[in-house]
Amino acid sequence: DGRQTPEIRITYGESVSEALSEIGYKNSTNDHSIRDFKFNLTSYSDMTFIESGLRFVKIELLDKNSEINLKAVVLQSRMRNIKYKGMFKCNDDLINKIYDTSAYTCHLCMQQYIWDGIKRDRLVWIGDMHPEMLTVRTVFGAHPIISASLLFMRDQTPLPGWMNGMPTYSLWWLHILSDWYIYTGDSDFLNSNKEYAISLIKTILSLINDNGTDNLPGYFLDWPCNDKPQSVSGSRALLAMTLDSCIKLCDAFNEKELMQKCREKKSVLISTEINSFGAKQVTAIAALADWINPPEAGKIVLHNGADGWSTFMSYYLLKCSSCYSMSGALDALKQYYGAMLKMGATTFWEDFDIKWAENSTPIDCLPDSKNNDIHGDYGKFCYTGLRHSLCHGWSSGPVAFLAEEVLGIKIAEPGCKKIILEPDPGNLTFAEGVYPTPTGNITIRISVNDNIIKTIYSAPEGIEIITKEKYKEYSYEFSRIS
User: Fold this and answer.
1) DSSP state of 90
2) Which pTM was predicted?
3) In Å, how far from its chain's centre is CA 109?
4) Is the N-terminal amide bond of 160 cis, ω within 30° of 0?
5) Cα-Cα-Cα-Cα dihedral sign, residues 204, 208, 214, 220
6) Of 202, 220, 400, 458, whose CA is between 20 and 30 Å from 477?
């Protein structure tokens, strides 16, 4: 009984396994974006179907004794038409591919605002946006999407509310605002947030007791720590790191008395003991907050390589581990992100455990009975199975890490007016890159030969470059060219 308009079913997937799945199978869903739907297909017509995040598509004819004739199936990609200003290349092709894939992952998530994921989490999660902001400024420069996303969350969260319903997410907002201002030097944008930021800072200070304990109404660092003791210690480490950002904000606002209170609260907070309970991400955040010794923390983070790492926390884990060994950090970077690439990734995922890659089928292959389905059989917490997002902007942390730590670009004054250049190529013999600033590009080329680290760089007029030598066992040569 063939109909004039036969019914078809279209299923999208970020993996082959997901494209072949039905709703409910291995936790496949239509959450956030529709990926499994039915339509009646008319003859001699051009039809447009639902927007979603995908790499693979299954088209299924549902009516018996019917046929469809397709002239073409076209997928239209919706991406911002923006120039890649930043760049990183080195003598290791895998690291180059990791940088490029990280940048592309974040680019896809630059929609109306910074989305966290293309298939799922198509909204602004401010607690996840810090690594995305770092990637945007490193690759695309002072793009207005960051300011727009910060304002959106501010306006959606009247005080005394917490952003996205979580106290730590409001901490991240302050951290992002500070780092974005340090990069852009945009005083007008900063001052447009002054009233909100100062009120929020005062609220946070009121939650820190004189003995270093706190009264935060909730603790959330990331999902692997959730509802565990390390969630409390991780949130307190984030609180300490955010107080550093609050000090910078108060300085920019000329709020000297409030700035001093932030210093005092930071001092009393980190005077207490902190226990990571084995969570590497807690160790990393605590080290970046100067709560514990960074090189010692880096050694802990690098124990067993990238075991226990997460994509969201990769920037902080890499920063911390490089304090102990840049070569070790780069090896862990390749171990962790390289495993995703071997599993067929063209964008980086919401989460990943290197153990998942053992005896698993890549995401661009048909699943089989002899191997695990790396998409459908893994994942945890809110991202179990096929609900797991395989294009998540928070996973782009390697971009900023490679620019800041390998090339050594550290912003010392708002607007990038002063840059500390402290290259650390680790076990690389060559690295070069472009870092966009609000006044133009900084270019860097590093070569290593016979324990001599030679760095040639250029920077726009008005940017002061302060060179810094990191290791006594190396000789350094710096040359600025016009």
Assistant:
1) E
2) 0.96
3) 11
4) yes
5) positive
6) 400
